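Hi P.,

Sorry for the delay on this. The queue was packed all week, but I finally got your sequence through. Input first:
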Amino acid sequence: MAIELPKETRSELRASLKRFFDEELDQEIGDLKAELVLQYILEEIGPTVYNKSIADAQAYFLARTEDLDGTCYEDEQPYWQNRD
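Then the structure:
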């Protein structure tokens, strides 16, 4: 599954990459290079981050629902049981 980003987000990320290269690597890059780096990150690194995020979300919800019977169970037909 390709990671698609809105135009505005891509533009903001390109600007961020250009700033990173300039401030951290003392290298100025243009929009084309920033777009190529962004595309590489989305295609090569993005799926790994995405899959890890999905796995973390699954683990979180599984842990919350694992003991659902124990935390949400109610005795059935309790009226007479409570009176006896």
